[in-house]
Amino acid sequence: YQQISFSLQLTHNEIEILNRIIADDQSCLECQGFHFKIKRNSNKTFGFNGFFSGATVYIYTEKCEWADIEQIARILQKFLTITNSYKCIAFEYACTCSRPQVNNFYGGCCIVTKNEIIIRTTIDLIEKIKKEMNIR
Question: Are the CB atoms for 127 and 136 separated by under 8 Å?
Fold first, then answer.
C-alpha cells in the first residue's frame, strides 16, 4: 500500500483555484482513493505572509492500494504555476505491504516546484549512501 497525507494553508481564492484543478482530474483521483478535504478556519490564522483568513486543505489517501505520487505531484505543479502561494510543495509518503516482501516497505518524498517534480524513495537514498561509501 502506498499512502500520503499532508496539508496546505491556503486563502479562499487559492482554494477555488485548487478546486478547479482537482475537478479536471476528480474521476481518476476518486477511483484511486485520493481525498482533498477543506477545513475552513473560523478565525484568522497566522501564516508565512502574516495574518489571513483561509483554510487548511488536507490531501490524503484512504482505502487505496497504490497512490499515484506522480499524479498528485502534477496537480500540485499545475496549482503552483497558476498561483504564487508557495515556491515549492513537499510531502512524504509511505509504502507498506501486508506480507514481508523485500523492497516493499519504504518511504519517500516528493518536492514540487513550478518547473520540476522530484520523487525519491528511501531505497534510492540507501543506494546513494552505499555508493558514496563504496559499499556493495
Answer: no
Give the separation between CA 62 and CA 4, rounded to whole angstroms: 9
Q: Kind and range of the H or E element at 20?
A: helix 12-31
Distance separating alpha carbons of residues 36 and 57, to the nearest angstrom: 7
Quote the CA–CA distance of 26 and 21 in Å, as a whole number.
Answer: 9
For the whole model, what pTM was predicted? 0.75
- How many other C-beta atoms lie within 10 A of the C-beta of residue 112? 23
**What is the residue-level pLDDT of the chain in tens, covering all 136 positions?**
777 778 888 887 888 888 788 777 765 555 455 555 555 554 444 333 344 456 777 777 666 666 778 888 998 999 999 998 899 999 988 887 777 777 777 889 999 999 999 999 998 999 999 999 988 7
